[in-house]
Write a structure and sequence with these properties.
2 copies of one chain form a homodimer. By secondary structure, the first copy, chain A, is an all-alpha fold. Helices cover 80% and strands 0% of the residues of chain A. Chain A has helices spanning 2-28, 31-38, 42-48, 53-77, 82-96, 105-109, 119-139, 144-168, 171-192. Chain A starts with a helix and ends with a helix. Chain A binds a DNA duplex (30 and 30 nucleotides) through residues 1-2, 5-6, 9, 30-32, 40-44, 46-48, 52-53.
DNA sequence: TATCGCTTGTACCTATCGGTACAATCTTTT
DNA sequence: AAAAGATTGTACCGATAGGTACAAGCGATA
C-alpha cells in the first residue's frame, strides 16, 4: 500500500499547485509560494516531484488534462444528444473558469517563453478540445467544414472571454460572450439537425 | 536640447523592451534580458527608468496605448466609413500581432498576479477599444445593444485567437477566426446600414 | 518492541535576482 | 579648450531564487 500512498499524497497536492500556478504563472510561482499553497515543506515537495517546478507543472497539466478529458472531451466525443452536450460543455466550462475570474493555466503557458517546455501538452489540449467539439457538431448534422470552424471559434472564444473578463474584472462579459458562442453552436445544430 | 535627447533615447528603447516583455512576460524578463534586448547597460537602463522594471513596463504600456490610440482607436472613434474602418482595424491588428505569433502584452498582464500593478491601464485599454468599436458600429446604424455585443465579441475574439494560434503554433487559425469576426461585424452593418 | 523504509523539516549551497554607487567617459555650452 | 552636465560600464549589495543533503520522525511489518 505504500506505493499507493505516495500516489495519493502527490495527487492531493495537485489542486493547490494548480491554483498557485494559475495565480502567479510558472515563473512567478516560487518554491516558497508552492510550499505555502500546498502546506508541504520543500523536502516533501521534492520527494514527490524530484524534477522540481517543471515536474510539478507537468503533473498539474496531466491532472487538468485528465479532468477535461473526463468532464469535457469524452462527453463530446461519445455524444448522443449534441445540443445537450454542448449546453453541458458551456455550463461546465463557465463553472470551471469561474466566469473568467479563474485563468486557464494551459492557455497562459502557451503565451510566453517559459511555457515552451510544455508546448506539446498545450497543443494537444487545444487540439483535442476542438476536435471533440467538431465531432459533436458533426453528429448534430452540421457540415464538417462549418463544424470545424464553429468549434475553433468556440474554443478560441472561451480563451478570449477569460482574457477580457480578467482585464475588465467583469464576470458579466465572460457570461455574455459564452452565451453568444453557445447560441451560435446550437443554432447551427437546429438549422442542419 | 538635452532634455529632448533623454526623451528620444528612452523612447527608442521602448520597442526592444516591449518585445522582451512580450516574449518573457513581466516576471520572466530579467534585467539581464532587458539589457541585452536594448543593448543598454544597467546604468543606462536605470538612468532612463529610475523606477526599474515597473517603470519600464509602464512606459511600454504607454507606448503601446499610444500606438493603438493612433492606429486603431482614433479611426474607429472618428469614423466616416464604418465598413472601411472595421476592415482596416482587422488588417492592422492582424499585422500588429503577426497573425497571433506575437502576444498581446496588455492581455497577458491581466492574466497573472504580477500584472496587478497595471490593472487600471489594462482595463482602460480594453474598455476604450470596445467602446470605440461600439461607436463605429453605431455609426453604421447597428442598434446600440447589438453594437456593444459585437464589439465585445470582436475584441475578446482577437485575444482568444492569439491564445489559440500561439498554443497550436498555427497562424492559419488566427486568420480564420479574425476573418469570421470581421464578416460578422460587416454583415451587421450591411443588414442595418 | 525493534526494525525498516518512506516522509519531512531544517540547514545549507550556488546562481542570479532587482537595484545602487560611482568613477570614467562623452556632449554640450560657453 | 575648459567647465558643467548627461550618459555609461563596472563593481558591488542584500535578498531570494531553485535545488541538495541529511538527520530526525513516522507508521507499517514482523
Amino acid at each position: 500500500m505504500s506505493s499507493k500512498r505516495v500516489l495519493t499524497d502527490r495527487a492531493s497536492a495537485l489542486p493547490a499547485l494548480a491554483e498557485a500556478f494559475r495565480e502567479h504563472g510558472f515563473e512567478g510561482a516560487t518554491l516558497a509560494t508552492l510550499s505555502k499553497a500546498t502546506g508541504l515543506g520543500k523536502g516533501s515537495l521534492y520527494n514527490f516531484f524530484p524534477g522540481g517546478k517543471e515536474e510539478m507543472m507537468d503533473a498539474v497539466l496531466e491532472n487538468i488534462d485528465g479532468w477535461f478529458a473526463n468532464a469535457i472531451f469524452s462527453p463530446l466525443e461519445q455524444v448522443l444528444d449534441p445540443a445537450a452536450a454542448i449546453t453541458g460543455m458551456f455550463d461546465d466550462v463557465t463553472a470551471y473558469f469561474r466566469s473568467g475570474q479563474r485563468v486557464c493555466v494551459v492557455g497562459c503557458l502557451g503565451l510566453n517563453s517559459a511555457g515552451e517546455a510544455f508546448a506539446a501538452k498545450v497543443k494537444g489540449y487545444f487540439a483535442r478540445w476542438i476536435s471533440a467539439l467538431t465531432h459533436c457538431l458533426e453528429v448534430g448534422k452540421v457540415p464538417p467544414a462549418l463544424a470545424a470552424d464553429l468549434a475553433e471559434e468556440a474554443v478560441s472564444g472561451i480563451q478570449g472571454a477569460i482574457v477580457l473578463a480578467r482585464a475588465l474584472g467583469a464576470e458579466a462579459s465572460f457570461q455574455r460572450i459564452v452565451q453568444r458562442l453557445r447560441s451560435s453552436l446550437l443554432d447551427a445544430i437546429v438549422r442542419y439537425g
